[in-house]
Specification:
With about 300 residues, this protein is of the alpha+beta class. The chain has helices at about 1-125, 135-150, 165-175, 205-220, 275-285; strands at about 160-165, 185-190, 200, 225-235, 235-245, 285-290, 300-305. Strands 2-4-5-7-6 form a five-stranded mixed beta sheet, with helices on one face. It has a two-stranded antiparallel ribbon with strand order 1-3.
């Protein structure tokens, strides 16, 4: 009996020990399972984060891709516009070149025409016999043609004549016929210091400028007198034309030298005689000015270097 009890006790102890170890093993297994579940959940969370990051990257890539495509489209558009502008510029450059060539051809033709007109008018003046009736009128007409032909000329005039101041006045008087006008008195005066005075200039052009001043005085002086005084001022010779005509206001002292300017439309002419007279004077290194202090009519001072 005792042995049976002992055996039972041993069995119970063995079962207890086995149960203890089984429970311990089950607890450890449960703890390991719990840890495995935690690790799994952690890995699941990491995977979800990776998936989210990947999704964000995908979105960013898609956005960058769309921006890149738009940039490419914009670049292509800009390139097309640039090419179109280049084509337009090329056409405009060609048109400009064609216009410049046409302008050059036209200018050359105009210069030739001006030269022919000037040669023809000068030839007429040279062949005129001022002793014949109507010669003065033809000379005035030739001067008018030359004025229109020369109104915008700016080239220097070659000074190749060695002449006396009196030669210039005599030619201007002869071409205008002012000394033969019966409705006014003409006075030609030469100061003592200017008598026999020699100039190195262009006699024909200087006489044209002076003739325009005399013609202007004749036109605006219906009665009274016109005086031509030749004198000197330092290193310059002065041709002073005074008249007792309608006069010119001080405000118009420069306006009258503008091309095609006429202060009085009742008188004939294109309004370029004074313009050309000053242009010739300045191209001969001289000048023509209106004396604003002269009030009995008009006084023009034409200067040339000696």
């Amino acid at each position: 009996m005792t042995i049976i009890v002992i055996i039972l006790i041993l069995l119970i102890v063995a079962l207890g020990v086995a149960l203890f170890f089984q429970l311990r093993s089950a607890k450890e297994s449960a703890e390991e399972g719990q840890q495995l579940l935690k690790d799994y959940q952690r890995r699941v969370n990491e995977l979800e984060k990776l998936l989210k990051d990947y999704s964000d990257l995908q979105k960013n890539f898609d956005s960058v891709g769309e921006g890149y495509e738009q940039a490419l489209l914009q670049f292509d558009k800009m390139e097309e516009e640039r090419q179109a502008m280049a084509n337009v510029k090329e056409k405009l450059d060609q048109q400009v070149n064609d216009l410049m060539a046409s302008k050059s051809t036209l200018e050359q033709a105009m210069i030739k025409k001006k030269d022919l007109i000037q040669q023809a008018a000068e030839t007429i003046k040279q062949k005129l016999d001022f002793a014949m009736p109507g010669a003065t009128q033809l000379a005035q007409l030739a001067n008018g043609i030359l004025n229109l032909n020369d109104v915008e000329m700016e080239t220097a005039i070659e000074a190749d004549d060695n002449c006396q101041a009196s030669d210039i006045t005599a030619q201007a008087i002869r071409e205008t016929g002012i000394d033969k006008i019966d409705y006014l008195k003409f006075n030609n005066q030469i100061a003592e210091e200017a008598q026999g005075l020699m100039l190195f200039t262009n006699q024909a052009m200087a006489a044209r400028a002076l003739a325009n001043l005399l013609d202007n005085a004749m036109k605006f002086t219906t009665s009274g007198s016109v005086t031509l005084l030749t004198t000197t001022d330092g290193s310059k010779v002065e041709f002073i034309v005074e008249d007792t005509g309608t006069g010119i206001a001080a405000d118009d002292a420069e306006k009258i030298f503008e091309p095609f300017t006429k202060l009085n439309s009742f008188f004939d002419g294109a309004g370029c005689g004074l313009t050309v007279a000053r242009s010739i004077a300045r191209r001969l290194n001289g000048d023509i000015v209106l004396d604003p202090e002269y009030t009995r009519g008009s006084r023009f001072v034409f200067t040339l270097p000696m």
